[in-house]
Amino acid sequence: MYKALCKECSSPVIIDNEVKEYRCTGCGKTFPVTDDEYTKRVRNISLEMRERIAFNELLKQLDKVKIITDFEIGERRTLKRYTGNDKVIEIPRGVIKIGTDAFARNDSIEKVIFSDSVRIIDVGAFMWCRNLREVFFNGKETRINNEAFMQCHSLGEVNIPQTVKSIGDSAFYRCGSIESVIIPSSVENIGEGAFAGCGKLKDIIIEDGNITVGHKAFALNESLEYVRMYPGKKVIFNDAFFGCGSFNMDMNCEVLFTTEDFYRRFGM
Prior knowledge:
With about 270 residues, the chain is of the alpha/beta class. The protein is built from 2 helices and 22 strands. It has helices at about 35-70, 260-265, and strands at about 1-5, 10-15, 20-25, 30, 70-75, 80, 90, 95-100, 110-115, 120, 135, 140-145, 155-160, 165, 180-185, 190, 205, 210-215, 225-230, 235, 250, 255. The chain has a 10-stranded mixed β-sheet. The longest helix is centred in the N-terminal third of the chain and has 35 residues, at about 35-70.
């Protein structure tokens, strides 16, 4: 709509964009829309359409930006908090650290894909994400800190790559769906209780290299059937497999700093 003046009485009238004639409310007469008025109308429609198109484009851009704005990025490229409810999370490239409790207790998340920029997954970053099933690492040298994935009960697939350097205390504590764990040669330390209480854990493979296996690192895994350790110096605390019952231990490595009980149990 746009404003014009009546040709008869000069009263102001409002002309709809789509009409071919208009009626003056002042003198009651009806007049056809002139070429000049038609030009105004086309110009008005054109402006309105441009504004509408611009607004729609803005909405599209905002929808794309939502993927970014769900993440609160702080100093030193730390992802401090996630506020969305997506099932699949792709950590934005450029993030170096997943902050403390950043995704904790989010029941929507089912899969996490780390970008190759991530170096640190901090304390409790994903703990109590009850529906988290898959985790994929793509980074370079990475540290998984204490309680990072603690009590993610649905987590069944964890592909720990050669880029992970350390696994913190209780990092995967009571992740009840994990059935097997392969510790790559890049890992230098497995913290206290890192994989303790994983009720379905059956197989553990620790690849060649030097590593320290901390207190109760694999404790209370009653389903454990087989542990294989490849060459390298392994510092294994006596209670690393506390409460695991009977399982086969295949060790082709040098074991250091363990108590006599450990040697005696595995016939070393």
